[in-house]
Structure formats: structure tokens, C-alpha cells
Here is the input.
Amino acid sequence: MSASPTEKLVSISSPMSPPSWALLERSLIKQQEEAVEEFYAHYFDERGYLLCVPRWGGDDGPDDAAENFANWPELYAIGASDRVYELYKKAWDGHLLQYSEAKTTEVEFARDGMYFKEFPTMFDWMHNGEGFTAFFHQGLCDPRDKKFGDRTRRFSGFYMGDDPIADNYIPEHRVIKSMFNGSRGSMLRKATGLDWAGDSIEVEGRFKPGHGERNYDEMVAHFKDYNDVAGDHPLNMGVTTMTLNAYMIDGNQTYGNWTKDYLDAWVERTEQNNGIIPTNIGLDGTIGGECGGRWYGGVYGWGFSTMQTGERAGIIAHRPYFLHRVHWSFGNGLLLTGDQKYVDTWRGVIDYINAQGKVDDNGQTLYPRMHGDDGWYDYQPEPFDNGAEHVYYWSMDRSDLERLPTDGWIGFLEGQNPDYPVQALQADISIVRSRMERMREDLSSPDTRMSDDPNGTNPASVDALIQLMLGGIPTEHFGHPLHCRFRYFDPSRNRPGMPEDVAALVEELHDDSATLTLVNTNQVSPRTVIVNGGAYGEHQIIEVSDECGTTRVDDACFTVKLDPGCGSRLRVAMKRYVNRPSFAFPWER
Here is the structure.
């Protein structure tokens, strides 16, 4: 570190009765520890295999299986017990083996295993991101884990020309060849309902598919229009979370350069398409090149509307699902480089769409969500705002705040919703209870259980903890990094996470500062915590001020010593996104 520890030490000796939010935080972490243990015992075996019928497909497939332990790495990294991390690793290793052994008979590219080299043989990055969301956060827990490093580099190599079987990328055009890609390369033909739905299976009386299909024929029919997969697609930007992770392991610039180059290609494509991100890029790099020149083409693209099957048969569904993921990928560019151009790109998309609004006969302005051969459609009364909260969080530009309702977490940060911390934590405690009740009521046998059946029962609920303790954006299940203002490490146990009995509340966020309250709820023993600037040390801490004075830091972290039963409100001055992001723990830098 650039300065001695004493210059960065903040000592807190002012008594503070534990606030309600502090006790709730510690209670929520503890209850989730116990719930994860019970959930694992109910739904996994001693090998780490999920007790279900393993299947391939977008209706129920490997990604759904892995979502059953999503958020476990983040929970551990926040401060949960070592056991949570141990169970995650056991479940992840078991999952990779289970789905490498599982084979299809009808879907051609998974006949030798749904996973090849521990990675999906060929699928889209909406589903891949969901399936790898837990793995992508493993680096927060133990970046020196050899399996984590080897897998991250191997998987990245599928897109960087390191593996001749996985021929996914055309470097001269910065194009991933298809939205169906993976360890066995890319699909360049039209996809079929079978490719998406997986092998035929008995449904009635046995399974309840998540989309409401009543039989296998309806499962295939659900995907009958999911054909145009050839060519690059913005969902493929999800790959950059993996390559960014490879870069953050040891700073190997090869991974950083590839990540930046590929993201920059999408920035340029958006600029070339008049500020609206295209959803199909030809193998020659042209916009709409694999969809007859239609920039809005492709599965999950701007023009992707399809007829529902099953219980909602006959209803047209609009599914531009890339809109829920792509802004996260532009955030990867900000985290990697600190350049706000990536945020500017997505802000421009939001503004462009809302500029296409029209006034109806009642004088109400409506805003589109979709674009087809006849122009914009699917007009709705609310302005388009996908990713608007992320844009504000990344920019801290007050003009971006105008797009957001000032309630919930944002309202709390703005001083307008003081009850939010207690309400949010109580709600998550209720979620733990309700999910445990649901689990205990589940009497299904493994041979009648789809892999996504327990998804809504996974008890790891970290959204409120990320917002309140870390000042961050909930990671959800989309497969993207953790963006936060602070992260904590326990020097006494030499591990990531908040020390036992310590609670934190991020009360304000500004472009150049944040307000953080730390409290030691233990009335007998002192606690020491290292406070990191961001999840990956990307923020530089300039100084820390409280009622006792100001401590100069000028580093990515500082140390706080909390006397028994003491706490304080700290104003932390910082420069955001100025440091090279790294998984390295503070004592390793």
C-alpha cells in the first residue's frame, strides 16, 4: 500500500445504540446462512448434483439448475459464514459434472453432453448469463482458487481464438458469429423449436413447465419463431463479464483489450445506427447483415414478437429480452476503463426511444418498446426506462435522476424515504421465511422435478444487503459484475465480508463522495473492518471524515477500528472508477 496503516486507520469510540437496521442486517445474514444449509440438504445430493431431471433447453435447462445457488457467493462476500461458500463450490462443481454427463438424444449439439469442457455447448447469452451468474461472482470470494482461474480463462478462450473447436469469433469484424454459441462453436443455420425446447418429455401429470405449457408439443411450439440466431447480437456482450473477470484475476491485458474492443464495437454500431442499438450484425460486420438488412431483427430483438402457447395461447408476446441485460454490459466497459462513453451510449438509447413517443386521441403521450417492418409499435403510457437507474448510478449526473421515481432505495438516498432500510430488510427476512415454508411443503420426488422448480425457493436474498450495506446495485441473476461503493474485509479472519457483529448503512451517494454509517453491535468486543472502494478497488478513497476529524487516505481502502458498542457516520470523499479493477484482496495489493 502507498501509506502506512496508521495513516489510514479510523478509530471509532463514540457509543451508538444498535439501530434497528443494524440488528436486522445481522439477523438477515444469519438466517440466510441457516436457510442455505437446509435448502442444499433438501435439493442437492452429496455429489452436489441437483435432485431433478436434467434437461436441455430454454424452457428448463442447465441455466435454471445453476440459478438454484445464485447469490450464494455474494452472500458470503457480504459476510455470511464459510459454510455458504463451501456449499456454493460443492453445488457448482456438481452442476458442471452433472450437465457434462447429461446428454440429449434429439438435440444434435448436446448429444455428447449438455456441457463440453464444463461450458454449454451452444446456447444464447440470456440463458448463459443466468446459469453462470453465481460463478461470475466467485472471484469476490476467493480469486486465487485454481479452478476458478482455470475455468475463467478456458471459457474466455472460447471467444478469443484459443480453442479451434469453439470457433465463435471473427476478430477483423469484432463479431461473435451467432447468438447460439459456446464450447462447440456457433450455430449459423436457423434454430428450431427442438433446439430451444430440448428432447421430448412426458409432461401431463408429471411436470409443470415454467411457461405454462400443458404438453411437450406446446413446449416446442413456444419456440417455433425462435429462428434467427445467426449473426452477432447484443446479448453476446454478456461474454465480456467472463473476459473482464479473467482480466481482474491478475491484470492480464490480453483479456482487458479483448473486452474493450468488443464493447467498443457495440458502441460504434449504436452510433452508426443513429443512436439505437441494433439487434443483428452480419458475419461481415454489417448492421442487420443476417436478417436482410433489418437492424431490429433476431431472436429477442427489437422486432421479436411471437404468439403464445399453453395456458396463454393466442396472445401475442413481445420479447425484446436483450433490453433487460445489455445496459449491464455497457457497465462492464465503465468498470474496465472508467470511460463514461459506455454509459452515454445506453443513455442515448433511452432518449432515442422516448423521442419516438406519440400523442394519442386523448392527448396522452405513449412510448414505444418494439420496432418492426412497419416502424415502432407496442406503445405504452410510461417512458422507456430500462437501465435508467443504472445510468444514474454510474454517472451520478443529477439530470439522469429525473428519469427515476424518488421512492424505494433511490428515495432513501435522496432523503425522502427514511423507513426504507428497515422495511426492505424486514421484507427480505419475510422472504426467507416464506421460501423455507415453500421448501418444506415441496413433496415432489426428483423424477418429477424440473431444474427450475426450486428457483423461487432459493433463500439467498441479497438485494437489500447490497443496496444498504454496500451502496450497490443488486446483481440479480443476469450474469454481471457487482457495482457498489464499498466492500468490506475482515482482517482478523483473513477473508472477505463484514466482520461478525458489524453493520453498515450507505445513506448518501454523490459523484465524489458517499455517506456511510458503521456500527459495532457487540457490546463486549472491538471489531476491525477494512473498507474497500468498490467491489474491485475501482474507486479511490481520498479522505474520511467524522465528528472527530479527517483522515487522509488516498488509496483504494482504509481500516476502521470500532470499540465495543460504538459507531459513527462517515463522509467518504472518493474518485469513482479511476483504479484498475482487481479481485485482489486489500492485503494482496
